[in-house]
Write a structure and sequence with these properties.
CATH class: Mainly Beta
Order of helices and strands: HHEEEEEEEEEEEEEEEEEEEEEEEEEE
Number of domains: 1
Largest sheet: 5 strands, antiparallel
Number of helices: 2
Distance between the termini: 30 Å
CATH superfamily: YVTN repeat-like/Quinoprotein amine dehydrogenase
Strand order of the largest sheet: 4-7-8-9-10
Strand content: 35-45%
Shape: globular
Radius of gyration: 18 Å
CATH architecture: 7 Propeller
Length: 349
């Protein structure tokens, strides 16, 4: 789904050239050098195009793949904690010949993977013990399910196409829970990451472009959406991105700092304070993604904590470079907040 970028790169590049990338305050050079040390955790085999990394409570790492209008089915890959490929599963029941892909977006309390499949607009589970796939919910026509987080009682899913936060009930009922003009994307670049912070009773949500006039169209946002008694409050912007950043996956450190992978032309990671002040960017120079590892950032999409590192899915959405489709491990010098996983996180049989 994010390979729509091919259609608008000339437009975005022109705006970037005119507007430029604003200067960013930098952390101390020595600390930054240690913080951003990057290595290759694992390469992602065909069909490639990983968009999110899920670190399971069993310590293993899971990724789904995307394809673009071909006849190859998506796969779910499993690696050990050290990056050794262990198993893979081929996703059944996809509509081939159109955009199709699967995101390992979360897990259930009993360890099943929660998958978002784009061609059928479905939420599925994958039992990693038996290899059984099961469809638990279907979204309305035109939906592109993107990221998912467990929140108060239910699963919440962003819609890349419609600017909607969907709530998925345990029995599979899909409800339009929140929508806003602020979540309407430009030229298909819409709402991406979502994380629920239980202590703050809020969601953090990334938006790739701006269509409501509050900023340049090519700038995205990190939004905060408070929740009270299961109902959404007022959506506010904590941070506005640089041009063509296309903010994507979110990681939250125990310090409260927020890490965002920018899947746009800048090919950078951003570190924000707990209140959304931009503290640092890596690499310093936007564009090339040069990070010191054998594989540069090439559409970095996720910022999932594993120990003191964040795992970054390199999707290579624009270039389609198979050699760059990998999971990169980036040292950030702190551990992350455990993802919210309520006791009843799961779906009725």
């Amino acid at each position: 789904m994010r390979r729509l970028a091919v259609l608008v790169v000339p437009i975005i590049a022109a705006v970037m050239a005119l507007a430029g990338t604003p200067a960013v305050p930098q952390a101390h050079a020595v600390a930054a050098a240690k913080r951003w040390n990057t290595t290759v955790f694992a390469k992602v085999q065909a069909p490639g195009h990983p968009a999110y990394v899920h670190v399971h409570t069993n310590g293993r790492v899971y990724v789904g793949t995307y394809t673009s209008g071909d006849r190859q089915r998506s796969k779910v890959y499993e690696w050990s904690a050290g990056g050794t490929l262990l198993r893979s599963w081929t996703v059944p029941g996809q509509k081939l010949g159109i955009e199709h892909g699967v995101q390992v977006a979360n897990q259930t309390r009993d360890g099943k993977l929660v998958l978002l499949e784009t061609s059928t607009r479905t939420v599925r589970t994958l039992d990693i013990r038996t290899g059984r796939f099961r469809t638990v919910a279907t979204f309305p026509k035109g939906t592109i399910p993107n990221y998912a987080t467990w929140g108060p009682r239910h699963l919440f899913v962003t819609d890349y196409a419609k600017g909607i936060i969907w709530r998925v009930h345990r029995k599979g009922h899909v409800q339009k829970w929140f929508t806003s003009p602020k979540l309407k994307g430009l030229l298909g670049f819409g709402t991406t990451g979502i994380v629920y912070r239980a202590k703050q009773h809020d969601f953090l949500i990334t938006q790739q472009t701006t269509a409501d006039g509050s900023a340049l169209p090519t700038r995205g946002h990190l939004y905060r959406l408070p929740v009270r008694k299961g109902r959404p409050g007022k959506l506010t912007s904590m941070w506005t991105s640089a041009d063509t950043d296309l903010p994507d996956g979110i990681g939250i450190g125990r310090s409260g700092r927020i890490y965002i992978a920018n899947a746009g032309l800048t090919n950078q990671l951003v570190m924000l304070s707990p209140k959304g002040k931009e503290l640092d960017r890596f690499p310093d120079l936007p564009g090339l993604g040069t990070n010191g590892s054998k594989i540069p950032f090439d559409t970095p999409c996720s910022a999932t904590f594993k120990g003191t590192k964040i795992l970054v899915a390199n999707q290579s959405a624009i270039a389609g470079t198979a050699a760059n489709m990998a999971i990169l491990a980036v040292e950030v010098g702190e551990r992350g907040v455990k993802p919210h996983l309520p006791r009843k996180a799961g779906f009725a049989r």
